[in-house]
Amino acid sequence: MATSFKKILTQKGYWYLIFKILAFLILFFILDFILGGFLGKLYFKQTSGWEYRTKYSIEDTRADILIFGASRAQQQYNPFFFEERLKQTCYNVGRDGEPFFYYYAIFKGILKRYTPKMIILDIENGVFRAEQTSYDRISVLLPFYKNHPEMRSVIKLKGPFEKYKLQSKVYPYNSMLFKILIGNAEFNKKRSIDINGYVPLSRALNEPTRSVNISQKYDLDANKLNLYQSFINECLKANIKLYIVCSPYYINLIGSDTSMTIAKNVAKSNSIQFFDFSKDDFFLKNPNLFDDTVHVNIEGAKIFSNKLIDSIILNSAYKN
Amino acid sequence: MIFTSIFFALFFLIVAVFYYALPHKFRWLWILASGIFFYLQSKPTYLLIVTFIILITWYAGLQIGNTTSSKKGWRFYFLAIIANIGILVFFKYTNFFTSSAVDFINFIRQKIFSSTETITNSLLINVIAPLGISYITFQAIGYLIEIKRGNHAAEKNLGHFATFLLFFPKITAGPVERAHNFLPQLKKVKPFEYNNISCGLKQILWGLFKKLVIADRLFIYVSAVLPNAEHHSGISLIIAVVFYVFQMYADFSGYSDMAIGFAKVLGFDVMSNFNRPLLAKSVTEFWRKWHISLSTWFADYFYTPIAIAKRDWGMWSVVYASFTTFIVLGFWHGAYWTFIVFGGLQGFILTIEFFTRKARKNIRKKIPAFLNGLIGITFTFSYFAFSLIFFRANYLTDAFTIIKRIFTANGPIYMENPSIIVFSLLGISFLTLVEVKREYFNNLFTLYDNKNWLIRNCYYCLLLIIILTAGVFDGGEFIYFQF
Question: Domain for residue A185, yes or no?
Answer without folding.
Answer: yes
